[in-house]
Structure formats: C-alpha cells, structure tokens
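Notes from the 1:1 (GR / supervisor)

We went over the backlog. Supervisor wanted to see one worked example end to end before approving the batch request, so GR pasted a single chain during the call. The sequence is below; no edits were made to it. Supervisor asked that the structure be written out right there so they could see what the output format looks like.
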Amino acid sequence: MPSTHTNRQYIIRVLFLLGTCILLAKTAQIQLLDSSYRDKAQTAAINKYVLYPSRGLVYDRNERLLTYNQPIYELMVTYKQVSPDMDTMAMCNILNIDKKDFKERLNKTWGRRYSRSVPFSFMRRLSSEAYGQLQESLHEFPGFYVQKRNIRGYHDSIAAHTLGYISEVNPTQVENTDIYAPGDYIGSTGLESFYENELRGKKGIKYQLKDNLGRIVDDYKDGSLNQKAISGKDLKISIDAELQKYGELLMNNKLGSIVAIEPATGEILTMISAPTYNPNLLSISRERGQLFNTLTNDPLNPFFNRAVSAKYPPGSLFKPIVGLIAMQEKVWEYNRFVPCTGAYWNVNRFLGCHDHPSAYTIGKAIQYSCNSYFCETFKSIIDKEGFHNPNKGLDLFNSYLYEFGLGQDLGIDFQPEKSGNIPTSKYYNKLYKGSSWRSPTIVSLGIGQGEVQLTNLQMANLAAIIANRGHYYTPHLVKDFINSDDTIDEKYTTRKNVSIDSIHFERVIDGMANVTVGGTATWSHISDITLCGKTGTAQNPHGKDHSIFFAFAPRENPQIAIAVYVENAGDGGRFAAPIASLMIEKYIKNEIRDNRKYIEDFILKADLLPKS
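Structure output shown during the call:
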C-alpha cells in the first residue's frame, strides 16, 4: 500500500497540472481569440466627461417658440495633461491661430479662476472644419478634448429685457454651489435668470477608457456608471409675441415703456422697455465682449428696464385712485362741484390746469383731468381728522395705496423690480422738522406729482384693478411648465382685493370712458371698442414733460389693461394715449383698421430721442 505521504504528493501534482492547464487556456483566449482584452490592457486612463443638457425652451402664450438651442463645440484643455512634446504647430494649423495665440490661450493667471488641473476653455465655437479635423487627430494632442454645449438663440429678436440672456458663471457662483463648474453658462438676466433652476436641466456624466495614445477604447464598466443629461423644463410664458413685436415697433426711436396685463389672470401680455436691443447680440461668441461693452456704454442705456426699474411720477393717472379713496371714506360726494378758473391756488401753491369747463362730478373731473378738483379731493382725505392732524389722514390714504400694490414690490416673477415711492407721514415729519406741514404742503400728491413715484408695471396693474372693479392677481410672466408636473406659484393665482366698493369703481370708469370721447385723449377713440383710460402729463425738471396713459378695454369683460410711458413726449394725449389705443386695437381686433392707419404712421415716424 502506498504511504499517505505519497498520496498527498500525487494530489498536489494533479492540482498544479490542472491549474496550469486552466491558465494556459485563458491566456490563449485573451491573446489569440479575444482582442478586446488586449486593447483594454493598453488602457492608460479613465476619463470623466460632462454631458451638458439642452436648456429648456421658452414659448409665448400662443405656443410660438421664442428661444432655441444651438449646439456648439468648445475645445477644452487641462494644463497638467498637455505634453511638452506635442506638435503645437499642427494644432495651430487646424485652429487657424499662431503660436503666440496658442501660448496666450494655454497659459493663464493661475489662481481663483483657473487651475492647472481643472479643464478650461481653450477655444469657443470651433468652426465646422476645425471640429472635423480634431475628431480625426485629437489623440495626438493629450490634455485636449472637445466639449459639446448649447448656446441660446432668440427668434424674432424681441423681448430682450423680458427673456434676458445667459453668460459664463463667475468664480463666486462656482464656489457657492456644486452645480456649476468653470466655463458653465447661467441665466444672467430676465426670465433666463429667474427660472434658471427650471431651465438649466441636469448634467450627465460619461466615463470612458482611453489607451496610452489617448484614443477612446470603451465605456468604463460597460457604461454602468454613466448618467444621461436631463433637459431643462420648457416654459410657456404669458407674453403675446405679436403684440410684443408691434409694441417694440411703435416705441422705436423713443424712451419709455409699455406694460399690458390680462385683468382676469394677472398675466403680462407685453412688457416693453425702449430702447431695446437684439438679444442675439449677446449669444456666446468671440464678439460678445465687444458688443456687450458697446451696449453698456450707450448713453440711452438699452440695458435699463424701464418697465419695472424706472420710477416715474404718475401724473394725472393718480387722480382716479384719489377719487376712489375719497368716495370710500365718505369725505367726498361723487356729484360735488368744484369751480376751476384755469389753475389751483392755495396759499403760495399754484398748479396750472387745462382749459375746460368746471367739473360737477368726479367722472367729469377725470374726463377733463382737472387739477383744481383733485387737489381739493386729496385735501379732504388728508384733513379727515382735522386740518392740524394731517399725519392720520396721510396714513389712511397710504393704507389704501398699499392695497393697490403701491410703495412695494408687486412680486412679479422677474428681477429686478423696483417698489416706487409712497411718501409717508414719518417722511414729512423728518423733512419738515422744526416746522409744521399740512394738506396744502403736500397737495401736489393729489395730482401724481411731488414725491410719489410708480413703476410702469404698477401703473398697468392699477388699470387692471379698475378694470376688475377692485381686485387683481399678482402680475406674472409664466403661464405653465410644458411637459412637466410643476405648476406656477400659487401667489399668482390668489386674488387680492382692495377695500373700495364696486359702485365707486363704476363711477370712476364712467369718467375714464369719456376721456377718449370728449376728454383729453379724443385722438385715441376706437369706434367699436369702449376704451376706458386716463391721460397724464408728468412734469420733468430736466426737459420736456413725460407723456402717460393707462387704460383697459373693453369696458365690460375687459381683455387688456395697459400703461404707456413715453419720456420727453409732452402731454399724455399726444403720444402715450395713441400708442395704447393702437396696442389695444391690435390685440382685440388683430389688426389696425384703415381709418386709423394715419395714427399708426404718425407714431411710427416720430423720433423722440434726445438729439444731443
């Protein structure tokens, strides 16, 4: 019998022999039968690539596309991975640059913005020829790779202030979040900025194996770690593109703004600031910086959004609000008569008035825009608690103004929005410390002058409140998120009421309906549309007065409320009112009828820009 030791040796030899056979078989498979293992054996690195999502699109209220995404290819580089033996001249020939340009693009001021170990943009918007050549020879240039991105384009070149533009993130934005990396784009202004979280989408990631020559071999772990990019959400906004385009045409060669609102919903139909600019000028390109500087240095300041950021005296547009508050507080009867001799006199105050008959109702005073009438009406509110107690009267008056959304941000889904200015009793106590102030001191507030200031958005919202007989919805620009379960903020669908009885609104509306029939804006009468409006002329110490008008139409079931402010254009009936009436006719009738073409021609030809 063989010994136990001999049996153990035999078993061990058999196991070694079996293992050797298995290894030889596997080696034969790898080297002779399956080339993929040989290729992967040559892999030198695992590269992580960012997949950029398509930015969400923006449509108007009629689902007309306002923005689009244009794919571009950007050459990225990681400084530490660039080989000193690389054929620099070959890359220069592909990119059509010289060696000096190459060195300037590659060598940065290393620090907060640029890092030697983090990829940065070497060249934006590669030409199609350069992109094609790089696809074939990129493995010859270690450290370089092509990144696909999307840049913004804007159809029709309208609504620049509303839509806004995108730009490259700054170092602070990179440091404050883990969402952005150097070279990423972000919404900088307008809706692009306000709805950045919804529009930007979510980046994807792709891991790829590269061989020692820089060539892609395969997805790492067969792509199991890859993540697809998720496109941004599409927005359907309340702007009517056709109305916006027409309004911008009317405001050409003028300074000012137009804001139109759908009273029943608070949706903004158009928001125009003039002068404007072509938003496509600020698409990501080599010329962008120069074009941006040109617009920034333009003395007419086309970047300034006069619709929501300019603070203006409302002028006579304020008179209907004064009348409403006085009637609600029972300090003024609707049919009270006030004689007017062409001016309002009180102590040392003189406020000129139009040449018109004396008004015997608030409605007639609105129709004639009588300064004398509304100075007396305003004083009756301030003096409600006595002539020597104007603080309480002004505080009472302002409490109504706050309900109208004045003296505060309305809360539009857009930034920046200014709050305007409603002077308070504390303000006047501080201003006139050491001496008293009374209703005659501040009487100019009653006709929309003095320290009171509103934005044109607030003026349009006032027109919407009157149209609704005492309520409004916070003005907003986004109607819906397309193909998404997201909904707009409920604050935009919450009704806000003003503490004034509807009967008083009807009385004020009577006067506004007569403004274009036999009042201060007869040139703006539309025969088959009952337009209810009010002109204003705001004094301008720096030049010609400003032309103002707000209105809504039709009187019953109003479809549009609008405010037009044209700087340095004279009285409200000459420019602001005709522009508003043309906008209303265009929106309700979809055209300007032949019998009003002469008004359109007059407005289109008018050049009101400063000549110096």
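Supervisor's comment: The domain at 47-237 is CATH 3.90.1310.10 (Penicillin-binding protein 2a (Domain 2)).
Batch request approved.
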